[in-house]
């Protein structure tokens, strides 16, 4: 049965007006719907492993077995199960694990988003940039400008080059962060203090929709109904 919170979101989403095309401004942003209030899934602690990205400060977590073919998943590997309700993650913000079966539409949001939907985006190769709600407005605008500058993603699947027309970047505030700005992708995370830190660009170039690091390479980061996946300020 669909939860009451989701029904409210569905009603709100009917009136959302979506502009097409990356970077388009949307007449009425809508937050992704909260997940159903089912019993909470408690995620097992994520295990830190050596990082091989070469980016100073990046923390890596055990994701053995993903992407497919990179070994056999072990007892400490991040799980990929679909959870109906909330998930209690061991890392803030989450870097993977069980998540909602319905992802959120990638883009820039001005309010916090459900972690369970954002983690599904990470599985698809998205990078999630989070910032403290009290980050100075100039820094928030700098992060938004950073997202706008990023090129659209092109993937190669089974020898075919596909222009996704998507950026695969989420940006949102997140209460209780361990640093002013935290960048996350599946099984990796970086903490920075300023949007001008050059490691931010390196991180996006390394981890965004990566055949090496993304558990699922190629799936879309949008196309969810607005009442479920939300309508970002821009994408």
Give the strand line-up of the largest sheet.
2-3-10-9-5-8
Overall helicity: 10-25%
Percent of residues in beta strands? 15-25%
Helix/strand order, N-terminal first: HEEEEHEHEEEEEHH
Based on DSSP secondary structure assignment, what is the total number of beta strands? 10
State the separation between the terminal residues, measured CA to CA.
31 Å
So how many helices?
5
Task: Provide an overview of this structure.
This protein has 235 residues and is α+β, with helices and mostly antiparallel strands. It has five helices and ten strands, in the order αββββαβαβββββαα. The chain has helices at 4-13, 115-123, 137-149, 199-207, 226-229, and strands at residues 41-42, 48-49, 59-61, 87-88, 127-131, 154-157, 160-163, 169-173, 181-185, 188-192. The chain has a six-stranded mixed β-sheet with strand order 2-3-10-9-5-8. A two-stranded parallel sheet has the order 1-4. It has a two-stranded antiparallel ribbon with strand order 6-7. Strand 9 (181-185) and strand 10 (188-192) form a beta hairpin. It is globular, with a radius of gyration of 17 Å. Residues 1-26 have low confidence and may be disordered.
